[in-house]
């Protein structure tokens, strides 16, 4: 009888060990195969290959210690780490403060952890490091700093295409090779709701869509592309590239139709020929090149509403963004320098409120009343007359993130 009991115990022990091993292998395979949200955080300088214009990464940057990294449970099984949302920005010249304020707005409202990819001129790196490292107590983001870099054969031409460094965004799929999906934003962007919400639009892409942008204009009568462009552009009024959500894996794999050759070209091969053909006809640099690409490949673009990229053009001559009137502004885009002059005081009021806001919960909650008083002073402008749409979503974001009990957030 004892012999049979020993055999039964031995069999149970072997079966239990086999089960643990199977679970551990399954966890490892899930960890290695995770996709959708992005790739491994990296800090790199592009190494442009002669003649090809493609980037290879090698680590030379600065990365904060990871938050929400992988952990193990008491049985020794690997637990899937929370996937980060990847956000990229390009900062040159006097754009440090703007960029820091944008990053702050992303951190304040977002729920999932963030991975920042900051491309900046060398003289700005120490300032970025000092500021972002002082936020390390938040444990909600990582960052990587990169130098500004272009294909060596045409570096000067690319850098001077529009504003300094702006065309860097065109090469992000080639530099950040291990990142699957990415949200690129200009430095003059402010998030008024969680990054999580625009990131979720990736799930709405159909099988052919590789990127998402908002229209350049809602009202064709004041549109720039449909009145002045000397090159192809997407849709009726073109698209604005200040907020661009990308599935970069698809971008790297796709072969693009074009008007230069009957042969379809991949992303790394199409940029320079486009620049050579249209450089005398483009005004807005890299944004124009993106419009040309998606004119020939309209099935590849997901167009999101204007409230995700709200600019002075949406209210400067009267309100023309219906979605923002209904639900408020989700992402504010203060182009044309309106955060720093008196032309659009409503935009400036939002910028200054977030710039001066600290990460303390009480400070964030208390910014709404003073901000509304400032906005009420702007009603002499067209944008100021509809100032309530500037704080409608902002109020909801603060309530959802900071006023509800933790279990309800």
List the defining traits of the structure above.
409 residues; alpha/beta; globular; 13 strands
- Please indicate the percent range of residues in DSSP E strands (runs of 2 or more): 15-25%
- What gyration radius follows from the Cα positions, in whole Å? 24 Å
- Structural class determined from secondary elements: alpha/beta
- How large is the count of helical segments? 16
Helical percentage: 25-40%
Architecture overview:
This protein is of the alpha/beta class and 409 residues long. The protein contains 16 helices and 13 strands. Strands 7-6-5-8-11-10-12 form a seven-stranded mixed sheet, with helices on both faces. A two-stranded antiparallel sheet has the order 1-2. The longest helix has 32 residues, at 2-33. The chain is globular. It starts with a helix and ends in a 6-residue tail after the last helix. The relative contact order is 0.11.
Topology:
Blueprint: H1 2-33, E1 44-48, E2 55-59, E3 71-72, E4 78-79, E5 85-91, H2 96-109, E6 114-120, H3 122-133, E7 141-146, H4 155-159, H5 172-175, E8 181-185, E9 189-191, H6 195-199, E10 211-215, H7 225-228, E11 239-247, H8 248-253, H9 267-278, H10 286-296, E12 301-303, H11 322-327, E13 331-333, H12 345-355, H13 361-365, H14 368-376, H15 382-385, H16 388-403
Parallel strand pairs: 5-6, 5-8, 6-7, 10-12
Antiparallel strand pairs: 1-2, 3-4, 8-11, 9-13, 10-11
Helix pairs in contact: 14-16
